[in-house]
Amino acid sequence: MKYIIFLIDGAADYPLEQLNGKTPLMVAKKPNIDALCHKGTCGLFKSIPDEMPTGSAVANLSVLGYNPKKCFEGRGVLEAASMNVDVHSDELALRCNLICVESGKIKNHSAGHISSEEAAILIDDLNKNLGSEKVKFYPGVSYRHLLIIKDDKFSKKINCAPPHDHPNERIKDLLIGGDELTSRFLNDLILKSNAFLENHPVNLAREKSGKDKANYIWPWSPGKKPKMKTFSELYGKTGAVISAVDLIKGIGKYAGLEIINVDGATGLFDTNYEGKADACVRALKKFDFVFCHVEASDEAGHEGDIDLKIKTIEYFDKRLLARALNGFTEIDDEITIAILPDHFTPCELRIHTREPVPFLIFNPQKMSDDVNKFDEKNCSRGSLGTLQNDELIKMIFE
Questions:
Q1: What class has domain 2-72+226-397?
Q2: Is residue 358 classed as helix, strand or coil in its secondary structure?
């Protein structure tokens, strides 16, 4: 038996007045997902344990059967692993967004989804002007970057606000708290970044063309290097990760899974769905297990764009899943397929929330239940009930 999880990041949502009380999953045309739902079994999965942050790192660790209470050390170290940046014992790693601030408030967490090329120029110039032996910025993809602070006196016990959870809020109310030495140093770096970035040529050009400026850095999710068993040690399976997002690739690296990069994978609605589908087919021929992560729906939810969120779900169904299913006929083995979001990203709120997410599992050797549509309401009636912790991954491998 082969196994694959398709993770539609942030696809779950609340009923919306604009959709006559339905959710984007309910409205989207997704015949291939619904067909698997009809042939499989369904339920809900509590991906975010109580008292844990509602981030994708925690949720995806849970989906893969890890206990985030034991191994989650912040997004920064996970993204560092993806970027092949070693984090040493005297270093603190933080995710570092380029964000857009207007009138003292966070306009968006992504600097208007700045291009990787523009962002690389800004990160390089930040290193030249604010970097030191103690401070190092590493360029990532679009607005997602890495900040390493080298000083064993700095603490991970600081309170940072994920910028995607605080749209339209004042930055002065969101500055870092907790350990005084660390928070004071990082808050000073945030303010200095604005003084440097506000009139940077890249930002002046973006402003002239009607785009949002990347006029602040925003460090968050601090941590030290985590300790994790490999996926093979936990579940006896070889595997691979397919994603455009450094966070997910970092989880895969610590889990000992092979990272497969797909040309044109962006993490947005314009990602290379077809390329990811083909990569899934190739990977399943080689490995026992594949984790295919698609970010686009989450970004649409953070933008509050209902129509775009529906489109990303439909693109996943038509362009990725349908193509992958067709390719799976080339594989001389049966395949268990699971599909789920990692968390809710309601368009109404534009942030992550912690409700249990819908999931389906199609195992060709097992009977189906009576759920025919994949969405938040219908999956709650599924025969598998509400799972948590490592119950989902064990159910997939059962």
A1: alpha beta
A2: strand
Is 297 in a helix, a strand, or coil?
helix
Are the C-beta atoms of residues 72 and 224 closer than 8 Å to each other? no
Provide DSSP, 126-143: HHHHH--SSEEEEEEETT
Collapsing DSSP states into helix, strand and coil, what is residue 109? coil
Give the β-pairing of 177-178 and 105-108: unpaired
**Per-residue model confidence (pLDDT) at position 75:** 84
Q: What tokens does 344 get?
A: 């809710």
Residue whose C-alpha is closest to residue 343's, from 333, 356, 331, 328 = 356
pLDDT of residue 74: 86
> Which of 141, 29, 146 has its CA nearest to residue 93?
146
Phi and psi at residue 386, to the nearest 5°: -110, 120
Residue-wise pLDDT for 187-211, tens only, equals 999 999 999 999 999 999 999 999 9
198-249 confidence digits (pLDDT tens): 999 999 999 999 999 999 999 999 998 888 999 999 999 999 999 999 889 9
Where, residue-wise, is CATH 3.40.720.10 in the chain?
2-72+226-397
Sign of CA dihedral 202, 206, 208, 212: negative
Which portions of the chain are predicted below pLDDT 70? none
Helices 116-130, 201-208: inter-axial angle, 10-degree rounding: 150
- pLDDT at residue number 350: 94
Question: Would the pTM of this model clear 0.85, i.e. be above it?
Answer: no
Q: For residue 40, what pLDDT is reported?
A: 97
Q: Give me the residue label for tokens 């990725």.
A: 320
Helical ranges in the chain per DSSP H: 24-27, 31-39, 56-63, 68-71, 75-82, 116-130, 180-197, 201-208, 231-235, 246-254, 273-286, 296-303, 306-315, 322-328, 376-379, 391-397
Distance of CA 360 to the CA centre of its chain: 20
From residue 32, how far is each of 38, 314, 326 by CA, in Å? 10, 10, 11
- Cβ(159)–Cβ(177) below 8 Å: yes
Q: What are phi and psi of 156, to 5 degrees?
A: -80, -5
Among 92, 56, 51, smallest CA distance to 344 is for 56
Show the beta-strand stretches assigned E in 60-134: 91-102, 105-108
CA distance linking residue 175 with residue 194, whole number of Å: 14
For residue 28, give Cα distances in angstroms to 245, 316, 342. 24, 11, 18
* Mode of pairing for the β-strands spanning 91-102 and 216-223: antiparallel
Strands 289-294 and 335-340: unpaired
